[in-house]
Amino acid sequence: MSSPPPTYTEEEAFQYLKRINFPLTNPPAAFPPANYETLRRLVACHNHYVPFENLSLHYSRDPKIDLDKDYLFDKFVIRRRGGYCMEQNRCFSILLRTLGYTLYTIGARVHVRGTYTGWSHMAIILTLDGTEYLVDVGFGGNGLSQPLAVFSANGEPIEDHVNGALPEQHRARLAEMPINAKKGHKVWFLESRRTPEAGWEPLYMFEKDTEFYFEDYRMYLPEQCHL
C-alpha cells in the first residue's frame, strides 16, 4: 500500500523558495497563491537555479539516486546541488503540493535514437481550475520551461504549443503509438521543435491518467541507486 503523498513543513517550503530565488516578502509572511502565475514563476525559478546533473552517479563513493523526501531537501536546498530527472520532479512536486496545488506524478518513456526506453522518466500532472497541465523541471536542456496545458476543463485535449528557450517550442499530442499491440489506444507525446519552421520531434511519451506511486519508481531506477 502506498504511503500518503509527502509535503514539506512551512519552514522547509520557505527555505526551498529562497533557494530558487522566488520573490518573497522579508521576512516571508505567507505562501504565494496557488494560481497559474505562481506556478509559471516557480517553474522558471527552479529551472534557473537548480541544474540538471548526475554528478553523484559518477564522482561519489556512494553513487545513488535517492527519492527520499529529506535526502532530496538536503541535497537541493541545504547543499544547493542539482539532480537527475526523478530527483528534480519528486522534490518539486512535494513543494507544489505543500503550496496547495493538486497533482500526481507519472512515468514517461524517453525517445532515444528512434525508439523508446522503459518508464525511465518522471513528470507531473497538475490540475488547476479544471485544466490539466504537464509540469516537468527535470528533463534537461531541451525540456519544458513552463507549464504545458494538455487537457481542458471541458474534456478536450489541448495541443497548442508553448515557447521554450526561444525559438524552441513544445507541445503535447495525443496519438497512437504504431508499435502498440492494442490498436486504437492513444497515448500522449511531448514534442519539441528547434524553430517554428522545423518539424516536431518526440521527447517522450506518457499515459496522462496513470498515476505512479513512490514504489513504482523503485522498478525503474538503475541498480546502483538506493531508495
What keyword list fits this structure?
8 strands; eight-stranded antiparallel sheet; Arylamine N-acetyltransferase fold; 23% helix; single chain; alpha+beta; 227 residues; 5 helices; disordered C terminus
Summarize the structure.
With 227 residues, the protein is an alpha+beta fold. It has helices at 10-19, 36-49, 69-78, 85-98, 214-218, and strands at residues 102-112, 115-128, 131-135, 148-151, 162-163, 169-176, 186-193, 201-206.
Description:
Helix 1 packs across helix 3. This protein has 227 residues and is of the alpha+beta class. It has an eight-stranded antiparallel β-sheet with strand order 4-3-2-1-8-7-6-5. The chain is globular, with a radius of gyration of 17 Å. The chain has a single domain, classed as Arylamine N-acetyltransferase fold. Helix content is 23%, strand content 26%.
How many runs of DSSP E, i.e. beta strands?
8
Radius of gyration in whole Å, from Cα? 17 Å
Order of helices and strands: HHHHEEEEEEEEH
Mean pLDDT: 90
Class per helix and strand makeup:
alpha+beta
Number of alpha- plus pi-helical segments: 5
Poorly predicted ranges = 223-227
User: Which strand order do you get reading across the main beta sheet?
Assistant: 4-3-2-1-8-7-6-5
CATH class: Alpha Beta
Domain unit count: 1
SS strand fraction: 25-35%
The percent range for helix content is 10-25%
> Which descriptor suits the 3D outline?
globular
Give the termini distance in whole angstroms: 16 Å
Biggest sheet architecture: 8 strands, antiparallel
Under CATH, the topology can be stated as: Arylamine N-acetyltransferase fold
